[in-house]
Amino acid sequence: MNTPAKRQFDLLGVPFDGESTLGWPGSRFAPARVRESAKWINMRIQDGKVYCLETDTFMEVGEHLLVDRGDVAVIPHDTQKTFAATSAAVKDSITAGRVPIVIGGDDSLLFPVARGVCEALPGRIGIIHFDAHLDLMDESAKQGRFSQSSGMRRSLELEQIAAEDCIQVCERHFNFPASGKFKHDNDLIHLSAREVLRLGPQATVERILERVKGADHLFLSFDIDAIDPAFAPGAGAHEPGGISSAEALEMVELLAPHCAAMAITEVNPTTDVGDMTSTLAAYLAFSFAVYGSQR
User: Fold this and answer.
1) Which of 93, 103, 152, 293 is least buried, going by the fewest C-beta atoms within 10 A?
2) Which CATH number fits the domain 17-292, given the four candidates 3.30.830.10, 3.30.310.70, 3.40.800.10, 3.30.450.40?
3) How far apart are CA 98 and CA 92, in angstroms?
4) Is residue 80 a contact partner of residue 68, using CB atoms and an 8 Å limit?
C-alpha cells in the first residue's frame, strides 16, 4: 500500500507595513530576515526526513516541505491592491494542494489571508488568533478601517467566518471598551496570556480545539507580540506578560496538523536584538510545517 503524500508548505513574504499606524513600523523588513533564518533550518531535511530532538524520532516530511515562493507583489501606497495580491497568493497555494505560511508585514494582513483561505476552501472557516491585542477596532479617524487594529473585525465580516468558530489567545492588559462590547455581543471569546500561562500549552490547545471544533477549516494567525518581549523584542509593540518562545513553539506544533494556513505578523527587525525574533519566527514557521505534515 502506498503511503499518503505528506502535506507540503509554501513560504510567502508580504513586506507591507502601510497600516502600522500604532507602535513601530518596520515589519516590511521581516520576510527577508525570516527567510534568511529559515534557510539554515530547512537544510536539515535529508532524504525527506528530519530528526526531532524533542521526541527522539525520525520524522517523514517529504522532499519539498517548505518551499520559498518569494514575496507577494506589494504596492506600499495601496493597501487594497496589496490585500488583493495577498489573498490571491494564499488562494493559489491552497488550490495547488499546499499549505501557505505567510510572513508579514503588519497584522492588517490577518484579513486578506483569512479572505484567501475563504476563497480557496468551502464551508466554515475558523480563526485561531494569537495576539496581545484584540484587533477588533471597527474604524477610527487615525487608523481607518483596515489597520493593524482591525484585522480580526474585518475577518469576522466574511461570510464563511463566524465568531463561534474563532478564539483569541494571549491577549492581555487593557483594550478599548468598544472592542470588549463587540466581543461580548458576538460571543467571541479569548484566553488571556495569564490564563494560558496557568493552563500550559497542552491544556490551552485542548481548549482552543474544543472551541473551534465546528469549523471545517482553521487558519492560525500569529502576531509575534503574543510572545513576551523578553523572548521577542523585534515586534511592532511591547506588551509584557506574554508567553515564552518555548510555549509558543509547543502550541504551534500541537495546532499545526489541524490548520490549513498560517500567518506570522509584526516581526520587526528594526527593534530586534541579534535577529532573535526573526529566528524565532523562522522556527515557528518550520515547526508548523514539520508537525503539520504529520497529519
Assistant:
1) 293
2) 3.40.800.10
3) 9
4) no
